[in-house]
Specification:
358 residues; alpha+beta; Jelly Rolls; four-stranded antiparallel sheet; 14 strands; 26% helix; disordered C terminus; binds 2-oxoglutaric acid; binds fe (ii) ion
């Protein structure tokens, strides 16, 4: 295992991950020096995460689509959606304009650089938070969505950056409410239940994974579950996201579908639903020839919200997780080793070998 490395060292020593893309070799801090095999995809027996076509969600097909999303959230914790409410041109445009941002000269990007994970808008290199492992092969851009965002400090170049970033985030926020309502109904809860508690915060995180000269020796994101409630992910057509198939324990590649979103359950959803909707380990592999961009909108409760198994969803098994407020959950999550589902396993009241790995 490599020594603990800080994100600032990546910036000081290498500038950005993007600047390393043209080199012959990858610096050791990025390399998986223990198990390279860990990085290889295992044949996935043809299984794929479900794709839900949301046409008819507000009409005659609602019950059927709610049921498909419920089943996917229970079996996979992941699904893709097509024919949703976010205009396809917003999706194309934001991928294009954010790529143009990363392609700007370093001094231009550094105007927005910050190490502060809570900054309302920032550019960063490497991975946020301390790492017990290798550094992630990615740079990023992150912003906190608000109804009326203060965009005065956002980049004026590339042209249309502000306009399209705002439009996209507003549209994703509306989609978030629609999904939360459907997911509530799938649990037999009032429509607004999940949205009210789990939906107020939206942080959007653009991941830029430069092409990598030793792609099978690094991770864009090491195996992790997301700590929040749900994630709404847009990816380009390069691919690289892999999801743990709980049934066969293999890694399954998430195929790229034009204008689709990948939706996944986070740890808070698993806790609240007492394990019904599952927060699943996933990872990102990078490409030897192509840069990849993805935009994740992390939907979360407020920091002070206490999340614990809902009495409405706890059956004979009793509550399976210790409750905590979301702020402390995040502190524990990022303060510990991020590896598969390690942190959520640690708050289980009754460890169930079922989800334990290795
Ligand atoms: O880039 C991706 O496909 C997924 C990124 C991810 O898992 C994350 O940012 O939490
Ligand atoms: Fe993730």
């Amino acid at each position: 295992m490599v020594a603990v490395t800080e994100v600032a060292d990546v910036r000081k020593n290498y500038g950005s991950v993007m600047q390393l893309a043209g080199e012959q070799k990858v610096p050791d801090v990025f390399k998986l020096n223990d198990k390279i095999e860990e990085c290889r995809t295992v044949a996935a027996g043809g299984r794929a995460i479900p794709v839900v076509d949301l046409s008819g969600l507000h009409g005659e097909k609602r019950a059927e689509l709610v049921e498909q999303m419920r089943a996917a959230s229970e079996e996979w914790g992941f699904f893709q959606i097509v024919n949703h409410s976010v205009p396809g041109e917003y999706m194309d445009e934001i991928l294009k304009v954010h790529t143009e941002f990363f392609e700007m000269p370093m001094e231009e990007k550094m105007k927005y650089y910050s190490d502060d994970v809570r900054a309302p808008f920032k550019y960063g290199v490497g991975q946020v938070a301390t790492s017990y492992h290798e550094q992630a092969w990615k740079d990023h851009l992150t912003l906190l969505y608000q109804e009326k965002m203060d965009t005065s400090k956002w980049p004026k170049v590339p042209a249309r950056f502000i306009e399209i970033t705002e439009a996209y985030n507003h549209a994703v926020n509306k989609l978030k409410s629609e999904l939360m309502q459907a997911l509530s109904e799938g649990l037999g809860l009032q429509s607004n239940e999940l949205n009210d508690v789990f939906g107020p915060v939206q942080r959007t995180y653009t991941n830029f994974y430069p092409k990598c000269p030793e792609a099978d020796r690094v991770f864009g994101a090491r195996p992790h579950s997301d700590p929040n409630s749900i994630t709404i992910l847009l990816q380009d057509d390069v691919g690289g996201l892999e999801v743990r198939d709980l049934k066969y324990r293999e890694w399954v590649q998430v195929k790229t579908i034009p204008h689709a979103f990948v939706i996944n359950m986070g740890d808070q959803m698993e806790v609240f639903t007492n394990g019904k909707y599952r927060s699943i380990s996933h990872r990102v592999r990078v490409n030897p020839d192509k840069n990849r961009i993805s935009i994740a909108s992390f939907i979360s409760p407020l920091p002070r919200t206490v999340v614990e198994p809902s009495p409405l969803l706890v059956g004979e098994e009793g509550p399976l997780y210790k409750g905590d407020n979301f702020r402390d959950y995040l502190l524990g999550f990022y303060g510990n080793d991020i590896n598969e589902k390690l942190y959520i396993e640690s708050i289980k009241l009754k460890p169930s070998g079922q989800l334990q790995l290795k």
